[in-house]
Amino acid sequence: MFVGALEFDVLLGDVRSLKQKRSVVRPLLADLRKRFEVSVAEAGHLDLHRRALIGVAVVAADGAHVRDVLDECERLVAGRPELELLSAHRRLLGPED
């Protein structure tokens, strides 16, 4: 079993309130869940209206599959015009960890 985790630090565009932030972040989370069948949540910067920390996790039998899914998730987030991807940190745990 392999477990992959990806953490995105994103800067949101023209967002002036936490309500507007939710209107950007919620569709992104739903899109990641639907397209890639991953677990995803807003995991940080909860009180900041222009920043979001998004966590993605995936479990699979093959490490290459986990890496591929995380790569696709990163491409999707990086390609969203309403936000700027500031950083992405990845962790992969395998059977020997």
TrEMBL record:
Entry protein name: DUF503 domain-containing protein
Species: Amycolatopsis acididurans
Domain of life, per lineage: Bacteria
PANTHER family: DUF503 DOMAIN-CONTAINING PROTEIN (PTHR36441:SF1), HYPOTHETICAL CYTOSOLIC PROTEIN (PTHR36441)
Pfam families according to UniProt: DUF503 (PF04456)
